[in-house]
């Protein structure tokens, strides 16, 4: 049980975390700050936060748990804004989709207090953003990855584990590096590919005619292409090294398939499709096999 | 109202068409043939067809409506198998995902009777195949594209229009060429890309670990990668020209985005994502705008 959550960023992710903690009876009071005062006000009107803070620093003041729910590119600046009020009793977490850059920023800015920060990535989201979509169920039944470093305090890691567990998450642990490689493959590259495919269609003179004919397969395939541009620009930049590596793997597979199509090599083409189809048909979300 | 449907291919697509016609009271009797006798038998046991035919030719005998629901690569051989019993009163249709190759096969094989064939592509399907998944609702509320040629008989085209309309489809008409270009963009290339992405992940030593972390975005993005390998091998081969053209457009967009990522050009990267995201967020299935 926490006394006070300092919430920095009262959007979809932060607002949903606050609502989930409140519903589970895990926090007495939520003090929130968002860059846009109208967002902070709206969050209070909706009951997502109890008190509006005029700055990130004041949102942290007196908190025993702090959540940074800001774009990954704003992480370092946010650490700088709050570092003077950080104490070793405070559990600080984030919700960023990339972890190596966030950990690097924490090392640079938090220094002796870096052990209070437990990097977290909940695998949850929606294609819509903003506090009006905040949902106490957003995280329930989802995975959350914690990526502690050598200097992370064991007690803080344990508390981080407990709080995500209490709001219904399955908690996993891995290194920031392993996290970033895996998510480049199964999240960041798929987003990039979906954006590129939509961009390619929209950029053609007949694009609108084509889109009028698209069916349910296209709808699901491109759902993630509607995601927030600024957020994804930042994620793609932050994890560029791993994404470029995964893009090479993908481009090689695509190139080989196109070559087989061009050369009428139907057997190896079928073999590659078969491998993809078999893997996908046997995959179950959240299960290792 | 038809007397007898000759169904060649009693799988998901053909079986669903037969069930939909029966439910709408549009046909008195369905005579079915599948390459595998056990499929034909199962279709009869399930009430999808009324009579098992021992050959494609005998399925056509006495029919006033014929549906070819076979892989696109089997279209020409099927036309050859049935041509001796085709009469000008018979309405012949297919359900293939590509149309230029099907029309070419019809011209070559059906010759003077080519006008009885109304090429059709219903935009419906499932990731599972087989008569056991046949569903009288598969086509309802979906689009179907008819691609008549100059020699198509107007009366047949009208009847084709009416039968799809009667089972709940929105009927559109376009040339085989326009059809193939559009579906290369919004269906065939997305399938190829989804197959290549899954293949690339599965082909890596850490692939299984990566997949265990994938979330709902990945699930939807890769749903079409579980599609039937033989069917898609055929579609990709049959529409190769348009698919290769669309692949170039996509590869160019992807290449440019990756270049912006590598060069830290975040503004043009965001611009491209923004265009994709805006287009996808405003797209509605089956609506032209």
From TrEMBL, chains A, B:
<dbReference type="InterPro" id="IPR046825">
    <property type="entry name" value="PDH_C"/>
</dbReference>
<dbReference type="InterPro" id="IPR008927">
    <property type="entry name" value="6-PGluconate_DH-like_C_sf"/>
</dbReference>
<protein>
    <submittedName>
        <fullName>Prephenate dehydrogenase/arogenate dehydrogenase family protein</fullName>
    </submittedName>
</protein>
<dbReference type="GO" id="GO:0004665">
    <property type="term" value="F:prephenate dehydrogenase (NADP+) activity"/>
</dbReference>
<dbReference type="InterPro" id="IPR036291">
    <property type="entry name" value="NAD(P)-bd_dom_sf"/>
</dbReference>
<dbReference type="InterPro" id="IPR050812">
    <property type="entry name" value="Preph/Arog_dehydrog"/>
</dbReference>
<keyword id="KW-0560">Oxidoreductase</keyword>
<dbReference type="GO" id="GO:0070403">
    <property type="term" value="F:NAD+ binding"/>
</dbReference>
<dbReference type="GO" id="GO:0006571">
    <property type="term" value="P:tyrosine biosynthetic process"/>
</dbReference>
<feature type="domain" description="Prephenate/arogenate dehydrogenase">
    <location>
        <begin position="3"/>
        <end position="289"/>
    </location>
</feature>
<dbReference type="Pfam" id="PF02153">
    <property type="entry name" value="PDH_N"/>
</dbReference>
<dbReference type="InterPro" id="IPR046826">
    <property type="entry name" value="PDH_N"/>
</dbReference>
<dbReference type="Pfam" id="PF20463">
    <property type="entry name" value="PDH_C"/>
</dbReference>
<dbReference type="InterPro" id="IPR003099">
    <property type="entry name" value="Prephen_DH"/>
</dbReference>
<dbReference type="GO" id="GO:0008977">
    <property type="term" value="F:prephenate dehydrogenase (NAD+) activity"/>
</dbReference>
């Amino acid at each position: 049980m926490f006394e006070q959550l300092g919430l920095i960023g009262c959007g979809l992710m932060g607002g949903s975390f606050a609502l989930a903690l409140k519903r589970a009876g895990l926090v007495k009071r939520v003090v929130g700050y968002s860059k846009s005062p109208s967002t902070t006000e709206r969050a209070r009107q909706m009951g997502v936060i109890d008190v509006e803070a005029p700055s990130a620093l004041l949102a942290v003041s007196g908190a025993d748990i702090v959540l940074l729910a800001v774009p990954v590119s704003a992480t370092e600046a946010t650490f700088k804004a709050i570092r003077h009020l950080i104490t070793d009793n405070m559990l600080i977490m984030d919700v960023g989709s990339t972890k190596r850059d966030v950990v690097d920023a924490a090392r640079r800015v938090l220094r002796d207090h870096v052990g209070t920060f437990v990097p977290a990535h909940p695998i949850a989201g929606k294609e819509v953003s903003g506090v009006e979509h905040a949902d106490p169920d957003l995280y329930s039944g989802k995975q959350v990855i914690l990526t502690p470093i050598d200097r992370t305090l064991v007690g803080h890691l344990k508390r981080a584990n407990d709080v995500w567990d209490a709001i219904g998450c399955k908690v996993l642990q891995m290194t920031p590096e392993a996290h970033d490689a895996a998510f480049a493959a199964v999240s960041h590259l798929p987003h990039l590919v979906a954006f590129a495919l939509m961009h390619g269609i929209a950029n053609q003179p007949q694009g609108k005619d084509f889109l009028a004919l698209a069916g349910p397969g296209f709808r699901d395939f491109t759902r993630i292409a509607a995601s927030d541009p600024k957020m994804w620009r930042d994620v793609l930049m932050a994890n560029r090294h791993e994404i470029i590596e995964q893009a090479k793997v993908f481009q090689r597979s695509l190139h080989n398939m196109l070559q087989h199509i061009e050369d009428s090599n139907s057997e190896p083409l079928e073999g590659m499709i078969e491998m993809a189809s078999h893997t996908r048909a046997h995959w179950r979300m959240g299960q290792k096999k």
